[in-house]
Write a structure and sequence with these properties.
Length: about 450
């Protein structure tokens, strides 16, 4: 585009006519201000200058005569000062363009949920596929089940009232006769969807630049939507269920590998590690998710110590744990095919594909309940049951807390948490066993006694 030697004034601008060519007219009064003239004879004021980083920047000021020459000169001077002070003068325009693009692009609730799933599934277990035959995680399935009627709608047009209407009127699709309401399902779906909407809007933990969706979009806030589980007396908070001796006696014989015949589970017995994983959970008082993520490289065979890279804690951030295992727990590991064939990164208790984590637990739990004649308990209750048995065996509460990773007793003494590295040395020099190992041995003996009665 050429620059014509014309004087930039109101007379010149009023006389502009279509010429079939595009050109600039520079202003003699304000350096960097020019009129950009189109082939049709229309003029637009632009300002070119250099920022604090010496980079050349061009800013579109406005169209003549909507923007007068006098106003264009004043705006050009303001832009020059802003550039010199390091202001990104085009940032607002970029944001407006992104907002316009996001507005023009219809994002449905379903598309947003899938987008979130693709981004966070690698780090969030509830968003990972539930099993070899499923492409969806628990979170997405819950959202799609409860909010099915909203999935195809533009998420930017859904209001808090729309979501509240669903949460207050949703009915269970299937009922097993034990649940009177769907409030538990609604509460879970609401809990899973809340972060999706916060991520899209850049709220809460996603407020920092780069943490949220790009571009951000204006969506409803589920904090304004009531959780129906809060008013449901049948839904309690913290579970305190433990299995009785009679229940354990009925259940433990089924916690073996290869898996017992519990009906149509569609997984060959030698590929189903769910029962034996539950037995290992009972023997170690570990969380089931810790057992399911255990790799063969995490087990120190010489010292019989299970290294957990990350365990939940009741206070503070996650930390690692070294847990000495009982002989019974080691025997479980030794009985598995991976003992001799698996690599360090292979899962100890894999799913049927041999690669992913165990899943489809609800289906298995129902079959186990029928086979054992028990009900009303959850697989996570095994951990609490193990702790209760150790307490009944007079194991000190501090040792139980250490096994369950509720506390790090040596923290205040300035001793590192990786003391498990020195367990073998302690045995050799002091001829003493780790209190955790002794406690877990007592647990194993008690379970064997219960099962044999």
């Amino acid at each position: 585009m050429t620059e014509k030697k014309l004087t930039l004034n109101d007379l010149t601008l009023r006389k502009l006519k279509p010429t079939g060519e595009r050109f600039f007219i520079a202003d003699d009064s304000v350096q960097g201000l020019r009129a950009r003239v189109s082939a049709q004879g229309e003029a637009v004021f632009v300002f070119s200058g250099r920022g604090a980083d010496s980079r050349s920047v061009t800013v579109t000021l406005g169209r003549y005569p909507d923007l007068s020459l006098k106003a264009a000169r004043e705006e050009a001077l303001r832009q020059r000062l802003a550039l010199k002070s390091g202001v990104d003068v085009n940032a607002k325009k970029r944001q407006l363009r992104e907002t316009a693009k996001a507005t023009a692009e219809v994002v449905t609730l379903e598309a947003l949920v899938i987008e979130y799933e693709q981004k966070f599934a690698p780090s969030k277990k509830t968003w990972q596929p539930r099993g070899p035959k499923s492409t969806k995680g628990e979170a997405r399935m819950a959202i799609e089940r409860v909010f099915a009627g909203l999935l195809a709608k533009d998420v930017t047009k859904l209001t808090e009232e729309d979501f509240a209407k669903v949460t207050s009127s949703y009915k269970r699709v299937k009922s097993d006769g034990t649940k009177l309401t769907a409030n538990g399902q609604v509460s879970r779906a609401r809990a899973y969807l809340g972060p999706v909407l916060d991520w899209a809007a850049g709220r809460k933990g996603f407020a920092k630049l780069g943490a949220s969706r790009v571009p951000r979009i204006a969506v409803a806030n589920l904090e304004q939507v009531h959780d129906p589980a809060l008013d449901d007396p049948t839904i309690t908070g913290k579970r305190d269920r433990i299995l009785t001796e009679v229940e354990l006696r009925a259940i433990v014989p089924f916690l073996v590998w290869p898996a017992p015949d519990l009906g149509d589970l569609r997984i060959p017995p030698d590929q189903d590690f769910r029962p034996i994983a539950m037995r290992f959970t009972l023997l170690t008082a570990a969380r089931l998710e810790e057992v399911c993520s255990m790799q063969w490289g995490h087990f120190d065979r010489q010292n019989k110590v299970w290294f957990k890279p990350s365990v939940k804690t009741t206070r503070g951030t996650a930390r690692s744990q070294h847990l000495p295992l009982s002989d019974a727990a080691v025997d479980v590991l030794r009985s598995l095919p991976g003992w001799t064939t698996a690599g360090p990164r292979d899962l100890v208790f894999p799913n049927a594909t041999g690669q992913g984590a165990l899943g489809n637990w609800d289906r298995f739990q129902k079959k186990l309940d029928i086979a054992s004649g028990t009900s009303g308990w959850h697989r996570h209750d095994l951990r609490r049951t193990a702790a209760s048995i150790m307490h009944a065996m007079k194991v000190p509460a501090s040792v139980i807390a250490q096994i369950m990773a509720h506390a790090e007793p040596l923290k205040h003494a300035g001793v590192g948490g990786a003391t498990g590295h020195y367990i073998q040395l302690t045995r050799v020099l002091t001829n003493q066993r780790d209190p955790q190992e002794e406690a877990l041995d007592k647990l194993a003996e008690a379970l064997e006694q219960i099962a044999s009665v």
